[in-house]
Amino acid sequence: MSQQQGEKNFELFKAWVSTMSDDDFAAIVYPASGKLNRGQIKKLSGLSDETLKRNSQVVSLLKAVENGLRERGVLPPLTDTAKKAQAAPKKYDNSEAKRAFDQRRSAQLEADNHNLRVQVDQLEREVEILKSKLASNGEMLEALDELGVFRLCPSR
User: Fold this and answer.
1) Considering the chain, what is the average pLDDT of its residues?
2) Contact status, residue 10 vs residue 57, Cβ threshold 8 Å
3) Within this chain, do residues 14 and 81 fall inside the same structural domain, yes or no?
4) Count of other CB atoms within 10 angstroms of residue 15
5) 92 compared with 97, residue with greater pLDDT
6) Structural domain count, the chain
7) 31: which of 12, 41, 72, 81 is 20 to 30 A away, CA to CA?
8) What are the backbone angles phi and psi of residue 97, rounded to the nearest 5°?
9) 44 C-beta neighbours (distance < 10 Å), count
10) pLDDT tens for residues 106-154?
11) Do both 86 and 99 map to the same domain?
12) Is the pLDDT of residue 155 over 90?
């Protein structure tokens, strides 16, 4: 994300925060953690998930807004789970990326398999047609040979 886009997103977020009342914020509290629901914030503010997670200005303003709302009693205190989640660093789970890759690869292989089966069926039909033509032409050559048509040819 460019510096200009980050600044633009921060200004957009600040403008959205200024339009919200305490009741509006109370309506989008995620009760399990005592924090504002990020999904609702994305919908209402028009910002992306990446902006809410990676734009340091937006992240710090959001924390400040949540802390201010907690001090005024609009948000409940943080739950133990939320406190632990804030204190501990997030662990990278590469199994999710591997699982997504495996699913995409599996879908691609299934599509390729289907296309190859269709091609095999088509080629088998063509082989049957060619065999029947060969059989009918073979009968015609045998009939001509019996008639002796090619024996009269001077080159033979």
Assistant:
1) 83
2) yes
3) yes
4) 10
5) 97
6) 2
7) 12
8) -65, -40
9) 15
10) 999 999 999 999 999 999 999 999 988 888 888 787 877 777 766 655 5
11) no
12) no
